[in-house]
Design a protein that fits this description.
The chain is an alpha/beta fold and 264 residues long. The chain is 16% helix and 22% strand. The chain has one domain: 4-Layer Sandwich (Metallo-beta-lactamase, Chain A), CATH 3.60.15.
Length: 264
């Protein structure tokens, strides 16, 4: 079996290898060689009117992931065809997903023994990782800001491991920075790195200044942008996001190079 280049990347102790494939699809590799994917979304049908890249950035059959985290049951986060191909690389891959996503995964013939259903507050240990599910959107939304409850359960995950902890925000509510009910559980796990969903104009997610506020209030050392450079509609310029972090910010904004691994 041909293996993805990430498999052979040497990760020094105390660091992580990170690779971003567009949208919210991230992979990390620890110093012990454990590979985790978040929201792998690599459909093969990619019309140019819809997708920034007409070729998939990843052949899932080349990356034997130990863990896959699914934040919620939207098609660009819970991609059944990608899950199926990941299992070709490693029949033992474990998927952590909220209940609605689990239902669709089972319908898509992902074996039940490979799936763990999780809700906010659940903590799963696997290999050298401990993964805690947290809310990305409160189940009741934010009535004080006239934000209704989400259509499905939206989670984020904090991954504790050598080189971490790292927080994958999921599709967070626009007012995330101002809601202690969602901020506090993340802050309690003291993530060093955060991959944060944001957008400059769409109201569902935090704007760029809101993204910075989240990173600083959580005490992150490094912030990564997420949820862009996949769909033609809805992408954004990450350099504009980075510009919202002043030079004296306590957080270092890092723009990952598309489909290239880096050590952090």
């Amino acid at each position: 079996m041909k293996l993805h280049s990430l498999f052979n990347v040497h990760v020094p102790k105390g660091s992580l290898a990170i690779q971003w494939f567009g949208q919210s699809s991230y992979a990390i590799k620890t110093s012990r060689g454990t590979i985790l994917l978040v929201d792998p979304f690599f459909p093969l049908h990619r019309p140019p009117t819809e997708y920034v890249y007409t070729e998939s950035p990843l052949d899932e059959t080349t990356i034997p992931a130990n863990l896959v985290l699914v934040t919620h049951d939207h098609r660009d986060h819970n991609c059944i065809e990608s899950h199926q191909r990941l299992l070709q690389a490693n029949k033992g891959t474990i998927f952590l997903a909220p209940p609605e996503a689990v239902v669709r995964m089972k319908t898509g013939r992902i074996p039940e023994e490979n799936i763990i259903s999780v809700v906010a507050g659940d903590r799963i240990e696997h290999a050298d990782m401990r993964v805690t599910a947290v809310y990305a959107k409160p189940p009741k939304g934010d009535p004080t800001s006239n934000i209704p409850e989400p259509d499905v359960r939206h989670l984020g995950f904090v991954v504790e491991c050598d080189g971490g902890p790292i927080w994958f925000s999921g599709d967070i509510i626009h007012t995330f920075a101002d809601l202690e009910e969602v901020m506090a559980p993340v802050r309690a796990l003291a993530p060093r790195i955060g991959a944060i969903t944001t957008h400059p104009t769409e109201g569902e997610f935090p704007f760029f200044d809101g993204s910075r506020a989240i990173a600083e209030r959580l005490g992150l050392k490094i912030a990564l942008p997420a949820h862009y450079d996949c769909f033609v509609k809805g992408t954004y310029d990450p350099t504009e996001w980075k510009a919202h972090f002043p030079q004296n910010s306590s957080v270092q904004p890092v723009i990952p190079e598309f489909n290239k691994s880096f050590i952090i």
